[in-house]
Amino acid sequence: MKSTKVWIAIFAAILAVCAAFVFLQSRARPPAVTAGVYLDGELIRTIDLSDVREPYAFEVADGRGGLNTITVGRGRICVTEANCPDGICVKRGWSDGGGSPIVCLPHRLVISVAGGGADFDAAA
Amino acid sequence: MNMKMPLRRLAHMAVLTAIALTIFMVEAQIPVPLPVPGVKLGLANIVTVYAMFALGPAPTLLILAARIILGAVFSGRVVALLYSASGGLLCYLAMLGMRRILTPRQIWICSVIGAMFHNAGQILAAIFVLRATGIVAYLPVLLISAIASGVFTGVCAQLLVNRLGDMLKVPKNLK
Predict the structure, then answer these.
(1) Three-state secondary-structure class, residue B19
(2) Cβ atoms A47, A72 nearer than 8 A
(3) Quick check: B30 contacting A, CB < 8 Å?
(4) Distance linking the first and last C-alpha atoms of chain B
């Protein structure tokens, strides 16, 4: 039964190597998630979402009375307040890159997130 | 089909295929706690390992092929056929090599090796289908799960082979 021990040792070694890999993978920095805020099709602000420590909010004015309050959290972004009539952008909620971009049509504001979301799930 | 195949052997293989298919379908209904595609218990592997040691390589290949094809059809995931077939083939070849060098008390080792090769085959198929080599990153997680589930299914198969082995052998006077 000596060779059984050899096999067990081989399996243990593979387990250890794999566990080390998984550990390193989990410690690796998550891929950068960036949000681009577009007004009238023009990029007015880029935010590195993976680098956000404390959530914060800022306002975007479209120059014609339209006002959107955008809140940024770690890895996600959302429009929390808007003075547009429908408020679809607010109802859209948080975006982390999966799905469609956040759009406020009345104020011609588009927020698109790149690099986040679950791209692999769709393939699997 | 070989007409000389004894009826008893044919019936044995048919029953094993039905068992493997049933286990496969029931297991497909069990949700997996990890969000990694390919992680599963692989209980149907018990039948493959058992067949490999109790019946031999040729019947095992037939049972495995029947289970993979019918399993894909029954579960409605024919797309997954390529993954299962590639994993199943590599698993089979690995077990074929292991069969000769293992004693009856080491059958579980065959299962672990088979499970690891099964997942390696799935990864290879995924790389081929998705044309993305990044999927290799899943291999460590899959290998850990393969060893864990391989030990479990292997011990089950080993118990079966060692306890049922003599019972299912064709008595000499009937040959």
Answers:
(1) helix
(2) yes
(3) no
(4) 20
Residue numbers in B near A21 (CB within 8 A): 140
Full pLDDT tens readout for chain B, 175 residues: 555 668 888 888 999 999 999 999 998 888 877 777 778 888 999 999 999 988 889 999 999 999 999 999 988 878 788 888 999 999 999 999 988 888 888 899 999 999 999 999 999 998 888 887 778 888 898 999 999 999 999 999 999 888 886 666 555 554 4
Measured between CA atoms, how close is B37 to chain A, in angstroms? 7
Check: CB of residue A37 under 8 Å from CB of residue A95: no
- Phi-psi region at B114: left, alpha or beta (left = phi > 0; alpha = psi -120 to 50): alpha
**CATH number of the domain at B7-27+39-169, please?**
1.10.1760.20
Question: What is the C-alpha separation between B141 and B148, in angstroms, rounded?
Answer: 11
Cross-chain residue pair A7–B137, CB shorter than 8 Å: no
Phi first, then psi: what are they for A36, rounded to 5°?
-110, 130
CATH of A34-115, one of 3.90.660.20, 2.60.320.10, 2.120.10.30, 3.40.50.80: 2.60.320.10
Burial class (CB in 10 A: 0-12, 13-18, 19+), A29: exposed
Complex ipTM value: 0.76
| Separation between Cα atoms, residue A68 and residue A90, nearest integer Å | 9
B155 reaches A (C-beta below 8 A): no
Q: Are residues B144 and A18, on separate chains, in Cβ contact within 8 Å?
A: yes
